[in-house]
Design a protein that fits this description.
Blueprint (H helix, E strand, L loop, with lengths): L3 E3 L2 E3 L14 E8 L5 E8 L1 H9 L9 H6 L7 E6 L4 E6 L3 E9 L4 E7 L2 E6 L8 E10 L4 E9 L8 E7 L9 E6 L3 E2 L4 E5 L4 E6 L4 E2 L4 E5 L28 E4 L10 E7 L6 E8 L15 H12 L27 E3 L12 E3 L19
Parallel strand pairs: 18-19
Antiparallel strand pairs: 1-2, 3-4, 5-6, 6-9, 7-10, 8-9, 10-11, 12-13, 12-22, 13-18, 14-17, 15-16, 15-20, 20-21, 22-23
Protein name: TP-1001-like C-terminal domain-containing protein
Pfam family, one: TP_1001_2nd
Organism: Alkalispirochaeta americana
Length: about 375
C-alpha cells in the first residue's frame, strides 16, 4: 500500500485527504506533456466570480484588493527535472521555489525528510532505491503566491557503482539466423543497473533497453539483441550467463533483449549508452552512408530524424566531428558491413568518440560475446 504525505500527517489513501478550501475559487484542467519526465500539470485560474466579489464587496471580502491580485503571478509552478541523487534521495527541480503539500510514491516509499533549497526539493526516503528501477511520484506543490500544481513524474534508482563500459561491436544488418545486435564491453567490475542503450539518442529514439542490475566483472560482454523472436528461450540474464537461448546468444556473455525491438536502421542512425534514462552519455556510435550536401536543408541526411540524432549526440559530447557543424560524413560508413561483417571497435578500447575508433571485419568475422577481431574487411 502506498501512503500520502499531507503536511505532517500520513494518510493511507487519496480518499482520506481533505483539500483545504482557498480564499479564491479554483478551476483545474490537466495538461500532459511527453518529455524525459512525464508531468501532469493542473493549472489554477482565479474565477470571474471571485473578481466580481472583490469589486462588489471590497470591505468584506477576504480577497486582496484587485490591483494586488493583478500584480500576482497566476502561472502554476512547473517541474523541470526529477532524479535520484543517491540510494535514498530524490531531487525535484522547479522553475521557482515551492513547498510540498503531499506526495505519493509507486512503488510505495516512506518519506523521512523534505528539504527545500531555492527551486529544489529534496525528499529522503527510508527504502534504498534499486539501481535502474523506475519509480513514480504523484505530488501536490504550492509556490509563494498560492499557485498550486499536481505533478506525476518518474525517476530511476541511483547507481553509485557504474563501471567503465563501451559500445564494442555492432551489427546493423539482419539475416535469417543473424539478427542485429549491439555488444557492450565491461572494463572493470561494477553494477550495470540503469544503464540505458538507445536505438537513436536520448532525445530522438525508436527503442531502448534499460539494463537490469547485473554485477559484472572486468572483460564481461553484454549482448543487447534488437530483433527478438519473443520465444520462451529468450530471457534477460541477470545472474546466469547461460540462461538464455535465442539467435546470437552466447553462453559466456550477458544476453539482454529489446522486447519491442524490430531491428536497427541499416544505413544511418545512432547507438547511445547513458548512465540512466536521459542521463549523461557514457559512449555513442554514429553511422551514415550519406555525404554532405550543402544544397540540402538537412546537409545531406536522408531524414530529419537522422539529422537530429547526430545533432543530439554531438551536442551532449558523445561524438567528435571534423568541422564546425554536423554532417553525415562524421559518422562511420556502414555500407561494407553485413549481418556477419560487423562494425568493431579497436581491441585496445581507445575511445576518441569518433569514427577513427572503428573498423569493419571480414565476412563471418562478427564475434558477439567474445573479443573483437582485429582483421579489417578489404573490398
Amino acid at each position: 500500500m502506498g501512503y500520502y504525505l499531507m503536511g505532517n500527517e500520513v494518510m493511507k489513501s487519496r480518499e482520506e485527504i481533505t483539500m483545504t478550501a482557498t480564499s479564491r475559487p479554483l478551476l483545474i484542467a490537466p495538461i500532459f506533456a511527453r518529455t524525459s519526465v512525464q508531468i501532469f500539470q493542473k493549472f489554477i485560474v482565479f474565477s470571474l466570480t471571485a473578481i466580481a466579489a472583490a469589486l462588489t464587496y471590497p470591505g468584506c471580502s477576504a480577497l486582496p484588493e484587485l490591483p494586488d491580485m493583478i500584480d500576482q503571478s497566476w502561472d502554476p509552478p512547473v517541474l523541470k527535472t526529477s532524479r535520484s541523487l543517491d540510494r535514498n534521495t530524490l531531487e525535484l527541480t522547479f522553475n521557482r521555489s515551492v513547498n510540498l503539500t503531499r506526495a505519493f510514491f509507486d512503488p510505495p516509499l516512506e518519506t523521512l525528510e523534505i528539504r527545500q533549497e531555492d527551486n529544489h526539493l529534496f525528499i529522503r526516503v527510508e527504502e534504498r532505491l534499486k539501481p535502474g528501477s523506475e519509480y513514480w511520484i504523484d505530488a501536490l506543490i504550492q509556490d509563494d503566491q498560492g499557485n498550486t500544481a499536481s505533478i506525476l513524474a518518474s525517476f530511476y534508482g541511483h547507481n553509485p557503482d557504474i563501471p567503465r563500459v563501451l559500445i564494442n561491436e555492432i551489427a546493423v544488418n539482419n539475416s535469417t539466423n543473424n539478427p542485429e545486435f549491439v555488444e557492450l564491453r565491461v572494463f572493470e567490475a561494477g553494477n550495470l543497473g540503469g544503464l540505458t542503450l538507445y536505438n537513436g539518442s536520448p532525445r530522438r529514439w525508436t527503442t531502448r533497453k534499460i539494463l537490469p542490475e547485473i554485477q559484472a566483472e572486468a572483460e564481461d560482454y553484454v549482448i543487447v539483441h534488437f530483433r527478438p523472436q519473443n520465444i520462451p528461450d529468450e530471457v534477460d540474464e541477470i545472474t546466469d550467463k547461460s540462461a538464455s537461448g535465442g539467435r546470437r546468444s552466447h553462453p559466456e556473455a550477458w544476453d539482454l533483449w529489446v522486447w519491442d525491438g524490430d531491428g536497427l536502421p541499416t544505413t544511418s542512425g545512432g547507438i547511445t549508452l547513458t548512465a540512466h534514462p536521459d542521463g549523461p552519455i557514457l559512449d555513442a556510435f554514429l553511422y551514415s552512408n550519406r555525404t554532405y550536401d550543402p544544397a540540402c536543408p538537412r546537409r545531406g541526411f536522408g531524414t530529419l530524424a537522422q539529422f537530429e540524432i547526430f545533432q543530439d549526440v554531438v551536442a551532449r559530447g558523445g561524438w567528435e566531428i571534423a568541422g564546425a557543424f554536423v554532417v553525415p560524413d562524421d559518422g562511420v560508413d556502414p555500407s561494407p558491413s553485413t549481418a556477419t561483417r560487423s562494425i568493431n571497435r579497436d581491441r585496445s578500447g581507445i575511445n576518441t568518440r569518433s569514427k577513427a575508433d572503428w573498423h569493419i571485419v571480414p565476412t563471418r568475422g562478427a564475434t558477439p560475446g567474445t573479443p573483437n577481431s582485429e582483421d579489417v574487411f578489404q573490398p
